[in-house]
């Protein structure tokens, strides 16, 4: 497994914010936390490919939003936040050595953080960042590869994967206040601890879950179910409205 990351830009304090109040971000600490995150990926069996910072794009550490990578190819997204659209071309240049590329184009918008792949079904959250045209284009682009795209209703969260992610084969970690888990039939549902609304964001890689240390009660629940959880400090990146899924693109070799 390859994990593509990008260095935290020194401009991260100018990031886009929707649901989180702006607070000072310690760039040095954010970079240290990002290195810890990369170490967790390596410990989970990934080869980490770190791309250089993009100073002109404060949110560029959140590489997940600009591409969807599948075994058959990659789809470059078109972010719903206009200032982030310039991040797409640099990532396309990095991904083209690994996958053939297809692209969502305006007026469609699509953020990778809204895209949840569960087997051959791809769920897309209808958020403020991903519109109906973007969902329709994605469906057309991935249909030849055998995937079905479905829209997922959600509320009060920036992205779908803020509210639901996979944490084991057949199991989803969900904030039921932000997404109705009955939309995902056939999956075991694990609800986050009510005191930790942002805890549904987790990276499942090679049978291990990378998860923010900010959510100890939810981690206790996962471990009690036999799930291998690796906690990382992501507090500075959280000030930029980023979660652990945001910071990498995972590619099967």
Question: What can you tell me about this protein's structure?
Answer:
By secondary structure, the protein is α/β, with parallel strands linked by helices. The chain has a single domain, classed as L-arginine/glycine Amidinotransferase, Chain A (5-stranded Propeller), CATH 3.75.10. It contains six helices and 15 strands. The protein has helices spanning 27-43, 88-95, 132-142, 160-163, 216-224, 235-238; strands at residues 2-6, 47-51, 67-69, 74-76, 101-103, 115-118, 121-125, 148-152, 164-168, 171-174, 188-191, 203-205, 208-212, 228-232, 249-251. It has a three-stranded mixed sheet, with helices on one face. Strands 3-4-5 form a three-stranded mixed sheet, sandwiched between helices. Strand 3 and strand 4 form a beta hairpin. It is globular and about 40 Å long.
Structure characteristics:
253 residues, alpha/beta, L-arginine/glycine Amidinotransferase, Chain A, three-stranded mixed sheet, 6 helices, 15 strands
Produce a short descriptive summary.
With 253 residues, this protein is α/β, with parallel strands linked by helices. The chain contains six helices and 15 strands.
